[in-house]
From TrEMBL:
Domain Transcription regulator TrmB N-terminal: 5-73
Cross-referenced Pfam families: Regulator_TrmB, TrmB
Record-given protein name: Helix-turn-helix domain-containing protein
Domain Transcription regulator TrmB C-terminal: 112-204
Biased amino acid composition, Acidic residues: 281-297
Chain intervals for the UniProt region annotation (Disordered): 263-303
Amino acid sequence: MTEELQRLGLSGYEAKAYVALVSAGEAVNGYEVAKRSGVPRSTVYETLGKLVGRGAAFEVRAADGTGYVPLPPATLLERMRRDFDRTLGILQNEIPRLTAPPQVRLVHSLTERRMLLERAEDVAAAARSELYVLGWPEDVEALKPTIRRAEEHGVDVATVVFGADDDPVGWHTEHRYSAPSAVEDNLGRRMLIVVADRDQAVIGGLTADRTWGLYTDDPAAVLLAHLYVRHDIAIHRVADRFAEHGFDEFWVDDPALRRLREPVGEPVRAVDGAPRSVGPETDDQGVDIEDLGDDEDGRSRAG
């Protein structure tokens, strides 16, 4: 509790002293607060004075000295909520007036699932008009509270989930072409894409023990992520529309589609630390060595 109170603006000593007052259940003096809270006796009265100044505690004078009682927790939390909302309202109105057109676009890496989901949640929370989300059920589930709040605030939400979702949110598409297991085998990872207002995006890949991802507000990268999700939705709409006209057979048997479903390889690090993909061995110019050879008239196929 003391850590959470610090997030809301109390100092460490103030939070400890307030918790001690709440747990006491009666008026206690500074010595007792220091003993219960661990706040040094040399600073406990200064700390209690700050709590009184905040309105989070009150002095109670009695024959045996001065005691302290806390503002009831429910009242304190409601006051903090009002103050926080007021501050947010001011900042939402004033900060945009100071914002200059961006000269530098952000692209930063996310290397842990927690970081990826937290940044994805930030993007979803920032949506004001439209929100596109694509991912596996276990990852989308973690974002659902934020996605639902966006939808409640009038954001147009579209979700593509690779697998069954018993509690879908937004304009929902269950990814069926190809099966989620086949896609994960093909890509070597689960995907997660969150795009807000065509303005910012999180793009990631997850395995059991590794995470690759990035956050960006670069228009080119955001556009690609945005179109990727829309493309998946469009493919499924086409599949549903032409299901009775052999779409399933076309999807399975068409040579070009089979080629596109070939595994893409696993990202690794080159000598210089830059990411690349494992695929057919190439020479220094990127030519597929396995594809080198002579055709019937002796010319190199690579040429």
